[in-house]
Automatic annotation (TrEMBL):
Domain of life assignment: Eukaryota
Domain Enoyl reductase (ER) span(s) in chain numbering: 25-349
Name of the featured protein: Enoyl reductase (ER) domain-containing protein
Residues in the signal sequence: none
Organism: Penicillium nalgiovense
Pfam families: ADH_zinc_N_2
Membrane-spanning parts: none
Length: 354
């Protein structure tokens, strides 16, 4: 393997989007054309050098750009955490299945490295530990594959935390979004009945994912009142909220079983409002007005085990909807699309054609 990697060459510099100041993506990001390319791993290194094909953007990325201060004497940071790409080279310590050059892979950067160190993946080449890389079939669409780890890991943790299983009735709020669309499919794979909530324009897409019932939240506003009318006699087992609608939890006793739970990953009310809601929802006792239902919110760092599991699923049983694909030079337009909160699936930046 070492002799093969020595024959491969990569350019000394590359294109990479860097965040140089605090603010929205349109003003905070700049496209650097002379960013140093990572070194080729050699010897017994556990790392893999990847030529990036597509990067799937996170909704939280621009939020971080707006709140994280630009500290003096620090290098500009590269955003984003998940990608699809092609192996350029790998050290002998990397897992055997991701060592072969030209193998198609999905990969992720860990949160501390991406956020604190600024070593994100919105660049032409990335070097990552092999434990953060999983091989995929060469026939899988690379744009779609780029978004499976983040959304898939989050969806997996939601259903595992809740304990979704066959016979349960589950409401997925935000069923047309990047996480919600995966969540619907994973719940169906577990044998649950799924009620999907989205806008009416997304109904064909959500029904195609396999929901048993569809609710247009605009037509049936306010949503909690409609749910109370529909599910008072046969309450839901779980509410999986990908939007962050506080009213869904506050009113949940009217449509959620006493042993049920609301699992939330959304921040519709902003980072500070959501933080306050989490504290109240989790710790306020019922005798002080707390809601007599369980509430859960958590961080969802990706893991290689989840990546490998999801990579097998996308070979036949799991689809990752892609809302739109933008060229590398148009990444700020991709962030604008995410900011609309109307994306149907993943918003992707195409870095290379592979």
């Amino acid at each position: 393997m070492t002799s093969k990697t020595q024959l491969l060459t990569v350019p000394p510099t590359m294109r990479a989007w860097v965040c140089r100041r605090r603010g929205p993506a349109c003003s905070a990001l700049e496209l650097a054309t002379d960013y140093p390319t990572p070194e080729v791993p050699t010897g017994s290194s556990p790392d893999v050098l990847i030529r990036v094909s597509n990067v799937s953007l996170q909704f939280s990325s621009e939020m971080l750009m707006k709140i994280l201060p630009k500290l003096p004497f620090t290098s500009p940071w590269v955003p984003e955490i998940e990608l699809s790409g092609v192996v350029v080279a790998a050290g002998g310590g990397a897992p055997a299945e991701v060592r072969d050059p030209n193998s198609h892979v999905i990969a992720f950067q860990n949160i501390p490295s991406a956020v604190i160190m600024g070593h994100g993946v919105l660049a032409e080449y990335v070097r990552l530990p092999g434990c953060q890389v999983a091989r995929i079939d060469d026939g899988i669409d690379m744009a779609s594959a780029s978004g499976i780890i983040g959304s898939g890991s989050t969806a997996l943790k939601m259903i595992r935390t809740a304990g979704v299983r066959e016979g349960h009735t589950v409401l997925v709020n935000g069923a047309s979004g990047s996480v919600g669309s995966v969540l619907v499919q994973l719940c169906k794979l577990r044998g649950a009945k799924v009620v999907g909530v989205a806008s009416g324009g997304n109904e064909p897409m959500v029904r195609d994912l396999g929901v048993d019932e569809f609710i247009d939240y605009r037509e049936h506003a306010p949503l909690p009142a409609y749910l109370a009318h529909q599910y008072a006699e046969n309450p839901l087992d779980f509410v999986l909220d990908c939007v962050g609608t506080q009213a869904l939890f506050v009113n949940s006793p009217a449509y959620l079983k006493p042993e049920g739970a609301v699992v939330n990953i959304g921040m519709l009310e902003g980072i500070y409002g959501t933080a306050c809601n989490v504290l109240l929802n989790t710790w306020l006792p019922t005798w002080l007005g707390g809601v007599p239902r369980r509430y859960m919110m958590f961080s969802t760092p990706p893991s290689r085990d989840d990546a490998v599991y999801l990579a097998h699923l996308i070979e036949g049983r799991l689809r990752i909807p892609v809302d739109s694909v933008f060229e590398m030079k148009d990444a700020t337009c991709a962030y604008e699309r995410i900011a609309t909160k109307r994306a149907r699936g993943k918003v992707v930046v195409k870095v290379h054609d592979d």
